[in-house]
Amino acid sequence: MNCDDARSAFLSGAASQPELDHLGSCSDCRNEWDALETSRQVLEDQSFWVEPSPTLEDRVVAMIGETPQPVAPPRPRRWLWTLGGGAAAALGAIAVWAGLPSTAPDWEVAIPGTSEAPDASGVVRGWNEWNGTRVVLDIEGLPPAPDGSLYEFWFSRDELHISAGTFAAPDSVELWVGVSKADFPRLWITLEPVDEDESPSGNNMMDSG
Amino acid sequence: MKSVDVERFAAGDPDAVRQLYHMYGRAVFTVAYSSLRDRGLAEEAVQLTFLHAWRAADRFDVTRDLKPWLYAIARRAAVDVYRRERRHGGRVPLDSNTDIAILPEAFESTWQAWEIRIALDQMPSAQREVIEATHFLGLSQEETAQRLGVALGTVKSRSHRAHRRLATLLSHLQEATA
Ligand SMILES: [Zn+2]
User: CB of B47 within 8 A of CB of A60?
Assistant: First the structure.
């Protein structure tokens, strides 16, 4: 008997006794028994046959169309800034623009718009790593930064401000910062003119408080 | 089978996105639904899968097989949605004593479900209909013949060809993982 015939008969649920006998006695088929059994369970599982909504395709296409292309940030490196003129410059932050982190975030905080951006709202998710924090900002209601300016995301404690990087198009933005939220609990976003000044401007747009 | 133009997909070309969706969207949904068991969450995982794939597409090596790459992204997206729902006490139907790090058994056989779904989607629809009638509707071959309005012999030969195709696919899977 042909192995494929016996296996396909088993999968179809209509195997004859000689076919079942073959599956039990043929060493090749016995090796495949687990895969055959799992596959038959997959086919019998009603959830396997559930169809997605007909609109899902359009939603996928629209979502990709509406998401800005990841681009290299214009000012990739910013150093620690302290209003008191502090040290610790080695804690500099580098923006990274890669795929989203794969696991659930370690923390998540809301970041509402200030009176400068009352329609803005957002959520910041963070992944703690041994040398810093990977953050993903999901922002709504904040217009793209005007020409000659960029948004900048800060981790702060008192007057100590660490930049996590800049972005022009607020949507879903992934950044990296070399500090932890435990040490720098205040998260906020300013609108910065593109200049040499690396301190936060007074244009506070969104703030976790 | 037409291959996906990964470069156009990476550029966000809507036609290329649709092409990828037509080839793999149903299978991505199967991976998500068979583990999450909730249509809304599964569809969210499908959207995340395509978003992640799009973001990573410019780093994809086009000489490699797209299928395992996309499967890995799909499974990860389902796991992410699952863990998020677990944390927020959401819709995933679970034993509340299960540790968050432990994925339920439903995540185990998603690779086979993925392969079988793609194989079905690539079959002539006449063969696929017979498989659906047998396994999803639970019909006998006589009932299937009646339902599809074809001769019993036609159902038998289509069923044989379709299941044989699946059986052959499985032996390849076995070789690939052996
Ligand atoms: Zn055999």
Answer: yes
**Residue A168 burial (CB count, 10 A):** 17
In A, minimum Cα distance to B138 occurs at A44
Instruction: State how far the Cα of A96 lies from the Cα of A164, in Å rounded to an integer.
Output: 9
Q: How far apart are CA A100 and CA B84, in angstroms?
A: 14
**Containing structural domain, residue B4:** 1-104
What's the structural domain count of chain B?
A: 2
- Overall number of domains in chain A: 2
ipTM for the complex shown: 0.86
Contact B163 A45 (CB under 8 A): no
Residue B114 domain-assigned? Answer: no
* Residue B116: inside a domain: no
Q: Which of A31, A49, A59 sits opposite B132 (nearest CB)?
A: A49
CB < 8 Å to A31, chain B: 174
- Same-domain status, A153 and A180: yes
Give the pLDDT confidence of A98-119 residue by residue, as tens digits: 344 457 888 999 999 999 899 8
Positive or negative torsion for Cα A176, A178, A183, A184 = negative
- For residue B51, give how far its alpha carbon lies from the nearest alpha carbon of chain A (Å): 6
Mutate one of B143, B170, B172, B174 to test the A interface: name it (highest A CB count within 10 A): B170
Q: Please identify among residues 109-138 of chain A the ones whose CB lies closer than 8 Å to any CB of chain B.
A: none
Q: Does A52 contact B17 at a Cβ distance shorter than 8 Å?
A: no
What are the pLDDT digits (tens) for B74-132?
988 888 788 777 765 556 555 444 443 455 666 667 888 999 999 999 889 999 999 99
Task: Report the residue from B29, B39, B167 with minimal CB separation from A7.
Answer: B167
Residues 6-25 of chain B whose Cβ lies under 8 A from any Cβ of chain A: 12, 14, 17-18, 21-22, 25
Residue A49 belongs to domain spanning? 1-99
Q: Note whether B77 and B48 are within 8 A (CB).
A: yes
> Alpha-carbon distance B77 to B52, whole Å?
8
Burial B7-42 (b: 16+ CB within 10 A, else e): ebbbebeeebbbbbbebbbbbbbbbbbbbbbbbebb
Q: How far is the C-alpha of B61 from the C-alpha of B64, rounded, in Å?
A: 6
Record: contact A60-B33, CB cut-off 8 A: no
